[in-house]
Amino acid sequence: MPRTMHTARPGGPEGAARLDSSRRRPRGERRAAAHAVGLIGAILLTAASLQKLPPVRDLLRVPATPFDYTQAGEAVQIYLFLTQAAPFVPERASVSFSSEPRDRAREVRWKQFAQALLIDRRICWAPEPPARTDVLIVAGARPPVPPGDLLFETPYGSVWKPAAR
Amino acid sequence: MEAGGPLRAGHVWLAALLLLPAAGAPLLVHPAFRPLSRFCRAGLSAGVGAVLVSTLMTWCAFLRIPWSVPALAAGAACVAALLRFLLRAPARDEPPHSGRRPTAMVALAAVAAAAAVAVALDATATGAATSVDLLLLWGPKAQAFAAARTIDAGFLATPALDYMNRSYPPLVTNLYAFATMAAGGLPWGAATLCFPLLLGALALSLPGLLARATRRDLAAVASALVIAVIAFLGVRFEIAGNGDMPLWIFEALAVAALSGPFGKDRAGALLSGLFLAGAATAKVEGLPFAAASLALYFLTRRRRISLSDVALLTVPGAAALGSWFLFGASRGLFLGFRGFGRPFEIFPERLSQVLATIGAALASASGALPFLLPALFLAAVGPRRRGALLPLGVAAVLCGFFLFTYLHGGPDPKEWIFWTAGRIFAPVAFLLVLSAAAGGPPPDREPEESLSRTAAANDPGIG
Question: How high is the ipTM of this complex?
């Protein structure tokens, strides 16, 4: 039987299509709303992430340390110092740590970083620097009494070859 | 290292990680995965390769076999090829991925996801997202393991290094060691780039997986929101280089595979099993996640569960984590994950303080936006299918588990909670999005199917 256009009847195909269409409209609107919420949410979050980026002039700059713009406290200074000091600490050397003024927690943090950055050296974990190690690293200011021969120094710390006793 | 040395080492380190998708590819080229796009399969190959390489490395360490990069990559590829025998060929009416042109919504969502990945990449590359834990534990362990060409039990047993959590699962340190052996050193900047690279891999693979569970447009939008949530939380809480991003990618992919119809067949079950193994061996909190996912999967699937389903979902995790615990026990290092005190030695009187601190920690992330927006999305989709239950249930279990964990610990857990809550609750945010996708409208029909149905409807001689 050929298809012909005729007046819509409630039980006919056109009537069923109109009814289905009216049911679909709320579903279509709901779908559009969900898509909008998802997309706008993604854009909002990405925009909010921009707050954490460095200033525009530094966006393409290679950082001096992996922590340049983090909230990791002294991490930048420790990383910079230890990577600069590494050539002055021979391989397989024993390394002890002190600080000026003395701060045990700070010394522990420096030792933890040294464990990563001064590989192939022996980090001495004793709370007090042992009587004799190959190298002594002092975090902070230069000690009032030099503990030995100065090998390297920056404003953040110094590296010493302890004097023989 | 001489000038130019660190840059070359970084390139080699990252290039070594390309062996991971190569190792996983023999499995993903099986016809059972043909309905997924090439991009999706490429991303999934990386995850599969990572799990196989890491598991092999742990078994070699247990059996005292020294690591070799080429042997590990080849071995993992062989295992991936053998796993193909567990899969059936797809049914004839399962069409391959049709490569249809993306709709405007899919294109917009892809741009939004790409923007989020780009921001994460720039934040990482400029030193704004690095985790201190990279230098405190992940990196030093990887360096020691690479130098020893095995998991160095002597290093882990050193009392002074107890802060490195010797029982922490091995996937991240194994893979870092793998790349470090190839490059001859661990370039810190390259290690941090794992965060945006894994985010990019997730952006490639998630839309294809979700499109098996829901309409393409919704799958694309949901994926973009997941990527943006992870990018925001990763940058805000400085996770680059630590174990969080590997954990999150495995969790997202495992739940995406499990929640939809894809999880009902062997290919989906095997993929989910491998990614659950990845989650369980990436970080400690991956284990309760995997356990909750499996339990809820079996509860929500009312059909009869076959032994093969159980095996495909659980054996990869058992092999991966079991090898780690065997190693620890055999070397006298640990018998399980180190906890925070005795299991039920909790302080319920701290509940209000703990809840308040968790709330403050989450709110510090732009007013908890990365948690509120997924909840809003879930409400907007209004999921009606059973697939929504698994991600929602896992999210609820994780919340309970983390709260239970925080009720242990010292007299003032505030600092601990503030340092960790934003990261460990992150999966809850993207699980809400995945719940919306899995519970939303059913997937699109393929155009060939749609056309044939239209032809049948129009032809009075048919049907």
Answer: 0.89
